[in-house]
Design goal:
alpha/beta, 5-stranded mixed sheet, 10 strands, 18% strand, globular
């Protein structure tokens, strides 16, 4: 079976619960639509688990990118020779903004790792693509974190930028022009759209971020073969 989740935000506990529900095995595939880190209590443990699974395919979320960019910029030995140019206002503001947006737990856990392990995790995140596609008997699924910003039916998926795929929020009613194509997005919690922690489907568009890190939220998982939803 083929599955999709989004916006786990460090909720390793909910991730494990969903895997048990779906009886996830090496014969299955799982796509994770970004925002693995930040806000929740165990972002690094979650990353380490995913990194060891050959059948899990993450895409880049805005929080993943912010963590990667900030930690890499801070992960440099500061000396008398480079301190004036390295510790600039832009880096300090970026670091503060990321921490205020839920990145503090990720930063603290990254800093506690041995340098080699931290480097391996950063390299793992750096390899996240901006989108994935998957095909089942239901059709072809385009899996992306935030959406396809500035969408045009004439625009190739490979032409969308990081800003357009990981940051710009998509309209829940947005539809891909080609028949047989489904769009699956995260980024915008359905709690903020409908008041319910449930997958929202409008036509061929599935919004599957159900607010896992929030008190009223849940982690959702969509089976792409049957369109059945699972929650923890």
């Amino acid at each position: 079976m083929t599955y999709a989740m989004a916006d786990l935000h460090g909720r390793y506990d909910l991730f494990r619960q969903v895997l048990e529900q779906i009886d996830f095995s090496e014969d299955d595939d799982l796509y994770i639509l970004g925002d693995i880190v930040d806000r929740g209590p165990e972002p690094v443990r979650l990353l380490q688990d995913l990194m060891g699974r050959a059948n899990v395919f993450p895409v880049m979320g805005n929080h993943d990118f912010m963590a990667l960019d900030t930690v890499r910029r801070l992960n440099v030995e500061i000396t008398a020779e480079n301190c004036d140019s390295y510790l600039d206002r832009d880096l300090m503001e970026q670091s503060l903004q990321w921490q205020l947006d839920g990145g503090r737990v990720t930063m603290e856990q990254m800093r506690s790792l041995p340098p080699e392990q931290r480097g391996d995790l950063l390299d793992y995140i750096a390899d996240f693509p901006l989108y994935e596609t998957a095909e089942t008997e239901q059709g072809i699924f385009v899996l992306v974190h935030a959406g396809l910003g500035n969408y045009s039916p004439d625009k190739k998926l490979s032409e969308y930028s990081l800003e357009e795929t990981a940051f710009i929020r998509s309209d829940p009613g947005m539809q891909l022009a080609e028949d047989g194509l489904f769009l699956i997005t995260g980024h915008t919690p359905t709690l903020s759209l409908t008041g319910k922690a449930e997958i929202l489907r409008q036509g061929s568009h599935f919004c599957i971020d159900c607010g896992a890190p929030f008190p009223q939220g849940r982690l959702a998982c969509l089976c792409l073969d049957t369109l059945e939803a699972f929650y923890a």
